[in-house]
Amino acid sequence: MMGWLHPGLILILGAFLIPLFKGKAKQAYLLIPPAAALIDVILIYAGVFGDIPFSTWQIPFLGYELVFGRVDKLSLLFGLVFTLATFYLVLYALRVESSSDHMTQFIYVGSALGAVFAGDLITLYIFWELMAIASMLIIWLGRTENAHQAGFRYIMWHITGGVILLAGIIMYIGATGSIAFNVLNWGSGSAYLPSMLIFIGFIINAAVPPLHAWLPDAYPESTVAGTVFLTIFTTKTAVYALARGFAGFEVLIVLGAIMTVYPIFFAVLANDLRKVLSYSLINQVGFMLCGIGIGTTLALNGAVSHAFANIIFEGLLFMCVGSVLFRTGTSRCTDLGGLYKTMPLTCIFTFVGAASISAFPFFAGFVTKSMVISAAAAGNMALVWVLLQLASAGVFHHAGIKVPFFTFFAKDSGLRPKDPPVNMLLGMGIAAFLSIFIGVNPNSLYHILPYAVDFAPYTAPHMISQLQLLLFASLAFFLLITSGLYPPEQRKIILDTDWPLRVAAGKVMWFIEDPLMSFAAWVDGGLKRIAADFAFFGQEKEERVLIGVSVMLALIFLAFYLIVELVYRAIAH
Amino acid sequence: MTTMEVILLSVIAILGFVGYVLLNFGAKEPRHPHGDLFLGIYSFAIIVTVVVGLLIQWPIEFRWEELPVFYGIYGFAACVFLIYVAKALRFWLPRDEDYYEKRGGRLE
Fold first, then answer.
1. B-chain residues within 8 Å CB-CB of A471?
2. Could you say which of A236, A396, A473, B26 would form a disulfide bridge with B38 (CB–CB 3.0 to 4.6 Å)?
């Protein structure tokens, strides 16, 4: 058996060769690293299991051995879907000329794979941060002022999350003496706080409200293909990390249930379709976190299989909206409508993605999401069940109806765009095929899940209940829109939980730049004048000023020191 | 499940899907020339799911599932509820698209 090659390494090393190619050769080359990584993962499936120390690098000042390749059913499932999605996403993005776009995307996926196959917390952290930086670059490559600023806001969230995660990891290693990344020991006293810090680091990347605002803020600002990449890897890596480290942690049930419902209102209100889909992404991750929190084998299978399927159909929806943006230059509901005649294939693919995310029978979402909901019912969690079903109706409304309706029907926008180029259609076609394939043939997915599956999605009550839910939800939409009660789309943005940060941070900056700096300038000038008056000795004017300022500063420091000392003594005694 | 059941369920599911696709066409303004046909198929799909739902044996996990057509009622109510909450939030959350540029501080 050949030595194991890390699929992430193939992509990261492959990224650096991209600038060497031009034109057609570049397009041909771009497909090689993703294909190689995909074949690599399939080969691992064929035989290599267990902890594979990819390298025996010893970190001298720590003395731990890092495990770059922990291969089991859970990490392989994510590895498989990541490489699979990368292949058709690169196909979708094939005509993008700029090498930097492709390089950042390859490095981003490579680091996500690195995090998924990481067997210890230190390796996880390294790739986690690499992923944050690569994703920020992908946002910046949107090359607009908005993208630039959103990238800064994005990285501030992720650096904060990363620092919390690092603190948690260091404390956790200190408390347990082990760097291994398995189910974290949050129950025991000394490991509780570090586990919670790691948990916060994870849920920031999973976009759990109220720590989610970076996602709908930054993701829609990237390029057409960049946004599709972004929506897949950061959140799903977090889902993987939570499934690995916090399976059965009850807090996740609550967070997940809230997370499925909260973003729906914003998705209903949002005008930009990429924002609508960003909110629906948060809603979908909510189902996964809920499953992880419930923690039974059915729920965990449901959570990770939903992650698998969601990567495919959510990516498909983003690719469809991306194609519309690519052809028309806008993704706003208010500017679109009536495109079905000129973009028929994109319209069909959108329907497939929409039916999958809404969990229509014979589409991917139906066979994965229902596992989580069934697990909630099996655990007798009535409120969670009610919220998840509400969210199912909600996701159907905003992702299943709103996206295709306002893009392809609704009104005639006067736009007559063609379907996108063949490589983009192929990318969407593969994702659409997979969405239907999983839906029709669920056992193909059930076979590779981490636990044995005892779940039959295609039963009469299950199918009828789901169809009733969806058809009546669509009936409500239909009645409201024909009676004019449905709120019309507005050219507006929607405030979210980043409002205090964005506005207050702006105020802080204004305070620093305006009043504080003028005060400082006033003090500065005043000091110089006083110093000049003091400085009657010395020969040259500059020297006198210098001496005077030094004396003044020494006096100020002395006074400051005295105050601190006095305060300290007053408190100490 | 017997083969007949599988076929029957598949037909219902496909009807439901077709109904969903046609709904998107059918709600078009001005009305689609085949609007009545769309509406017919869509209504038929809804009626079939209701009738079949009344006939089959349900496994009862929660008490409210004993209510006839529970899922239909819940789906309808959920959608109306979500839209009306979103409508209410409209008084509060939407801002002009350049809101943050104006409000964000740095007035250079």
1. 16, 19-20, 45-46, 49, 72, 75
2. B26
